[in-house]
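<backbone_tokenisation>
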Amino acid sequence: MRHETELLAPAGSFESLRAAVNAGADAVYMGGSRFGARAYAENADEKGMCEAIRFAHLHGCDLYLTVNTLLKDSEMEELGSYLKPYYESGLDAVIVQDMGVFSYIRENFPDLDIHASTQMTVLGAEGAALLKKQGATRVVTARELSLGEIRRIHEMVDIEIESFVHGALCYCYSGQCLFSSMLGGRSGNRGRCAQPCRLPYQLKDRGRVLNSPKESYLLSPRDMCTIELLPEILEAGVCSLKIEGRMKRPEYTAGVVRVYRKYLDQILERGSDGYRVDPADYQELRALYNRGGFSRGYYQVHNGRELMSLTRPSHFEEKGKKAIQEKQAYEKLLESLKKEYLEQDKKEEIRGSFHISTREPSSLSVSFRGLECSVEGEPGQVPQSRAMTEADFRKQLNKTGDTPFRFGKLEIQMDGEVFCPVGQLNRMRREALQKLTEACLEQSERTERELCPRKKEESESGSMKLVVQLEQQKLLPEVLDYPEVQAVYLTSERLEFEQLSEDVKSCHEKGKQCMLVLPAIFRTPAAKLFREKLSLIQRAGLDGVVLKNLEELEFLKGSGWEIPLIADHNLYAWNQEAIRFWREQGVEHDTLPLELNDRELKERGCGASELIAYGYLPLMITAGCLHKTVEGCDRKEGKRMLTDRYKKEFPAVNYCRYCYNVIYNSEPLSLLNSGNEIKRLAPAVLRLCFTWEDRKETRRVLERYIRVFCKGEKPDKTEESYTKGHLKRGVQ
């Protein structure tokens, strides 16, 4: 990181990179041809990315490469050769989501900075501390964090903090969204999100529509604009101010960077006393892009209507005089930005010293950022007619052309009357600036590095255990009578902790293990509750804990509680490097990814993993609360139906204990008819997840799975609607 406080801009193309640099960005983040979270941007190929790194570095700008998707096991074979030329060109950092990718980079490119992507869902100091121990130099915080939560990370962990300050917000916690993937196969975890959050929906309660037809964009947040909050954000410990927008036009990038650069410089030079944003600058940001106005994001609120663009999902009104006027003003602004920042690149100021004499070789020295380069030429000539003046030499040497430099100060020393051919001056200038360019780039370039061979391991296969996960504690007696069930997982969203000890005892009396499933999101409410209940939970005699995020892993390590750990599907393990990472963290079983098909799962290895074979899968985990947005917060949990354009109904549950919503798939996952595929995969554990099913339905589903997977019977024909998830199709 070249700058103590950094303005970080998006670059979805080389033109956007130019726009960002010319407008004053300190760093840019950019995707290459593979593995980035914006697969549909104009991402650079190898030659283009190496050129982008050179361009950025010549202008004193860092470049971070996005490798912020999940990689299949077969793709890990290509990761090293993909990164190698960028590493050698001086790439400053890689933004990473996948812990397998993280481990691979740490092993093969140990001096390359790793930034933990917002897709890792870093929610607090515990997660940041774990990542720092693994070698991360920076965390990109989840967009949902408050300034207080970010400040706590800053105070407790010595790590760089990058946070979004402007641009689009996802409705779901980043890295936890399967909505686009499960509905159409375009996975957000692969950079191909189809943005179902920008579509209209109805919210229903027992068939009654709750939202107005005019407010149908229930999952569409407004864009965030925090220009008025910059002092508070910096005070909280954020060192990198991140602008979203790799899919936006270069002019957008230039315009947003220009405004934020102005106010960041103001704070850095004069402090935050009397800080005030000119309404004209705020209006310019609105004109560039907004969805029904701006919000300040989650920095000062946990959720609420003020964050949402309920009436429209896009920048302009669809029709009317106002829409026409806005579009005209928008085009005029873009043209102005294009002219200022894209028609020519900014020049870096250098110092120069030219000396010419008829008695010794002429010389030109140029210096820039502590570097100095010199070239020599022929001695000056005795003038045949008119001697050259200082102005003549200055005029010719100042013609720096399409180089990234211009002379801020140029000293000319002439010993008496002298003449020099223009061609010689041009050659000396070209050679000096070329040497300076090469010296600048050599500062960050690295020597060629040999890649370590991948470690491929065969996963062990044994007998498959059947386990049941219950959200409703009252259903425990219904499953204890089945000897085929070897373990019960109790989720914590509605768990009566005082009853936990009795539940564990009941399981043990029936010869079954009992595990506790921790919350999907482990922020302040969850952490506070578990600190209060930890002694009670430890005394309950649990056989293991199921983890869903990095915070929980580090929390349990810090508590000193030694207990078997299982990584749920939220802690992604798409490749063998990721599996190995979780094992190194003390995890006994991971859970098979929900987005890989059977062929990819087989290639990855399943012998020490759990397979979810039944259940309503979570499509979104959100800080936003549909109940609060539409009806107001009464702190009462409930299940409502989110209905799309095709009348599909997605159950939406507000879990008030931890203050998050989960939107579930409209149909349950059922692999009852996939016995042959599951047999070939041979997972260690088959898990059935029950949420709101009643006693009768729970028994019916459980008995069907027992007959097929424990007794070897053929499955009954079923007319119920269900999905096989990605077992056959997978994602791109």
Notes: The first helix runs from residue 14 to 23. The chain has four domains: 6-169+222-295+319-341, 171-220+617-667, 349-442, 465-616+668-710. The radius of gyration is 30 Å. The chain has a mean pLDDT of 95.
